[in-house]
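TICKET: design request
STATUS: open
ATTACHED STRUCTURE:
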């Protein structure tokens, strides 16, 4: 599935992005909306170290998708925000997901959709619990 997402991103003009990089952009956008757009906030959301995030952010900054800046009132804090290019890539990525969901829901019955939703919630709960155990 991830390879298909990358293929669709390439087709939409974002061939310079891996799906992992797209998820970093997505996390930056979410954290910005929540007011926790610092390296620590974003790394926590992605469940990676701030050092690992820094490597990805440097690459995405060079590609023009993200921008890092220091908080003038607290120079210890680095904020990471999407550029216009990053917002457009995220919109394209969300569109991929929306089309996938629409296509799936278009060929299954309401009963099958309910079963699929319950199964996905069970899988998400399992992985959420496993993630908590590792912490």
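STATUS: resolved
RESOLUTION: sequence designed for all positions
ATTACHED SEQUENCE:
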């Amino acid at each position: 599935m991830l390879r298909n997402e990358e293929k669709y991103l390439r087709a939409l003009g974002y061939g310079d992005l891996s799906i992992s990089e797209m998820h970093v952009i997505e996390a930056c956008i979410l954290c910005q909306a929540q007011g926790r757009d610092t390296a620590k906030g974003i790394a926590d959301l992605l469940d990676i170290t701030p050092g690992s995030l820094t490597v990805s952010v440097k690459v995405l900054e060079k590609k023009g998708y993200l921008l890092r800046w220091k908080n003038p009132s607290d120079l210890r804090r680095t904020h990471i925000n999407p550029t216009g290019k990053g917002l457009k890539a995220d919109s394209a990525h969300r569109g991929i997901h929306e089309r996938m969901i629409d296509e799936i829901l278009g060929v299954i019955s309401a009963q099958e959709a309910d079963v699929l939703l319950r199964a996905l919630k069970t899988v998400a709960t399992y992985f959420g619990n496993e993630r908590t155990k590792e912490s």
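CLOSING REMARK: The longest strand covers residues 74-82. The radius of gyration is 17 Å.
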